[in-house]
Amino acid sequence: QDFHGRTPFVPEVLSHIEQMSATASAAMPAVRAGSNLHRRTNNAKKQSRSSVIRRASTTKTKTIEAPPNLERLRILTPWEEAQPVLKSEFGMSDADIAEAGALSDEEISEAYTMMQLCRDFENECNQAYMAGKIRGFMHLDNGQESIPALLGNAIRKTDLKHSYYRDHCHALACGVDAGAVMAELFGRDGGTCRGTGGSMHIYDMETNFQGGWALVAEQLPYAVGAARSIALDKHLGTGEAEDRIAVVFVGEGGAQNGRMAECLNAAAKENLPILFIVIDNGRAINTFTKDVATNQEVFNQGKHYGIPGVLADGQNVQDTMRIGRAAIQHVRTKGPAILQVHTFRFNGHSPADPEHERNRKDEKRWARAACDPIKIFEESADATRVDLAACTAKAREEVRKALEFANASPPPPKDLAAQLEYPDPTGSVDYSKREPTMGLAAAEEITKRIVPEATLTALKARIEALRAMAGSEAGISIGDAVNLAILEEMLRDPTTTAHAEDLQAGSSYNVPANTQQAFGTLRAADEIIDEGHFIGKALGEAMNGYRPIVELMNANFGIYGIAELSSAGNTFATTGGQFEMPMTIIGAGGTAPNQSLGAEHSQPFHAYIMGIPGLKICTASKPQEAYGLAKSMIRDNSPGVLLLPVKLMKTRGPCQVDNFLPLHKATTHRHASQAAIDAGKAVTVLTYLHGTKEAEDAIDQLNAEGYDCDLVELTCLKPFDADTIRASLQRTHKVCILDESTRSGGVGATMSALVAETMFDELDAPVSRLCMEDAPVPYATEMERAMVKRAADLVEGVKAMC
Asked: What is the SS3 assignment for 486?
């Protein structure tokens, strides 16, 4: 069987296997004849890679035979046989290959030191975990040390790195201080993230180490966004180094996630400088990857997109470094690539892993004895070029100092998490005065340089036409008002970008109209139909100096991106306040009466995201609010979501341009008459989206019967504007919530609880909620009328309270 557990059957391959087995057996008596598989693609392109399955290993003292029940063995990828692959697949020259293959004594010594540093660091982490100093989940990297050796050798400080939950050694290899990493694991204030992130969330802005992401494969689109930021830097002329790259780590199990295909497509489409490092230890958590994946040759996944890939034996640090350096140089000079490193993980998935899966313990015992990259290096000819004892001592001393630093570091302040809720604390910013990071003069100069003069003239004319529409008697539509805000901000600040489906055509409501025509495909990107993918790319851009705007077309499509929205909200706090997240999500949604869109297009997306920490969530039912909130949100350094009423997007109304609305204030549209208040017939109505129009439609009938209301539009759902609501309740002492979400877990449920908890003394009656019941919104009008509350329901609700 090959290392995927499949039985090869192609006769010419079998013949070649027999030839290679005989050669291997003669050279290495410990390799059992007939059991080696030298996999070579026998086609017009000759070979895609070379590897030899190794059933047994010979040390200086003994032969270590693999137990017969093992399903995954070591492979060999000799540098001599990798070179033809690099020539054919990567187009590398002899000079390029010679440069990649030349390892100096200093580089070899540094690689060995890095492996020892990582091994010793992880061993101490294991001891600290058992002693209770490290809590929660922890994932160790023992057995995979050749990868950090490669990183330390070939990845630069200016490169942008995105790892996953097994991130300690990646961080160390990328230059993050060992003491800060250990202190983070200890939950101390001296940690990389001040104790907010922990083991799975190592971040360091100084070295551009950008996670530590805990959801499997979520880091892929973030890294693509980071790679786009490098391309954008080049486009704007602001890049520090023209050959910077993005590096993303993923397991071979995580690479089966659909995000991988999407990101390969994106990387190829824009020829992004990104390296996908696939760490292939044969297991997706505990499951044998081959049990769930038809093909584990992840390095070949890129062929459909024209992205070359190569495989390396991760137990041989020299071959890993040479092959990896070649792949990295390709990314620096040509475009994206995949490097798959075949390794063995010596520990369980985490310390709590019982490792009950079949053959796992036998494999681990054998791999520790026969496949240890440190031992294999020590027995190689190159070991004579290294002072092994000095390197080992240096590594151990660094780990000793890391432990000393972590133990001495104090715990973080108890209120740190609350302090880090938002990059821009509530109400702290005058958005009208916030300039682009580079300054207005430099921003204007860049725009003049990158946007053709004729295009710039046409764009300014379009903006003026929209501004004139906003000031006209008929007014401007909600969609056009938001489009005006976006065009103005993208013109003013060249770090503002846009992502949307159907973007060239303006999407469904003109929100991103004319952005690509004015600013090009790099700043205004048409996207594949997966919101999670392009929200993820926007997150990566936002971490690297850009202000992405994501238009969802229909807000409910954002359900595809809940994981990415969650991480956007968490990032500022989880990184200890290092990485701001100036990202704006805009979508038309809600559930209007007579909408007739059925259940999936009528979901309360706004309610689904209310529980995500760190998000600022606003709504707008009129052009004025839509424009002012969009302008402020784009300039805010927090992730924000602006929700618009899907059935009212073309409704026109007045809009004062150049106005910036606060992201933390509700909007009072109407005050109840004093007569109604004195008669006890006044109610505070809290509503949003379509509910604002429904409430306005109900007012005439309420007035005719002697009732009235303070109409408060919840233009900010989060943070909660207690001051505005309290001021109204001090007048009316009754509140009715007209809600476009379900009774369980809805926006109205949250608002009701907050009012009852914080303003109970102002209430003369229980809070009234008019909301959707816990059932899917139906299509037929008769059923929908019973589900979705409207003006008539509000009239009855107000009367019932008085």
From this structure: helix
Task: Round to whole Å and give the CA distance between 754 and 394.
Answer: 57
Half-sphere exposure of 745 (CA within 13 A, CB side): 11
Distance set, CA 309 to CA 81, 304, 327 (Å): 15, 11, 8
End-to-end C-alpha distance for the chain, whole angstroms: 80
Closest to 672 in 3D by CA, of 730, 622, 721: 730
CA triple 333-338-340, angle to 5 deg = 135
Partners of 497 in the β-ladder: 548
DSSP 183-222: HHHTT-TTSTTTTSS-TT--EETTTTEE----STTTHHHH
Q: Are 310 and 89 in contact (CB under 8 A)?
A: yes
3-class state of residue 286 by DSSP? coil
Residue type, 43: N
Residues 557-612: tens digit of each pLDDT? 999 999 999 999 999 999 999 999 999 999 999 988 888 888 888 899 999 999 99
E-assigned strand segments in 361-493: 476-477
Say if residue 9 is exposed, middle or buried (CB neighbours under 10 Å; 0-12, 13-18, 19+).
exposed
Q: What is the C-alpha separation between 315 and 343, in angstroms, rounded?
A: 6
Give the residue carrying structure tokens 């430099």. Answer: 442
The angle at the Cα of 155, spanning 301 to 247, to the nearest 5 degrees, equals 35
DSSP-derived secondary structure letter, 779: S
In whole angstroms, give the CA distance from residue 624 to residue 70. 67
Give the C-alpha separation, 163 to 111, whole Å.
20
pLDDT-wise least confident of 54-63, 262-271, 508-517, 539-548: 54-63
Any long-range contacts for 59-65 (C-beta under 8 Å, 24+ apart)?
A: 59/370, 59/375, 59/379, 60/379, 63/29, 63/30, 64/30, 64/366, 64/369, 64/370, 65/30, 65/32
CA distance 414 to 425: 18
Report the run of H or E that residue 669 belongs to, with start and end. Answer: strand 667-670
pTM of this prediction? 0.92
Edge-to-edge strands, sheet with 716-718: 524-526, 496-500, 547-554, 584-589, 640-645, 616-619, 716-718
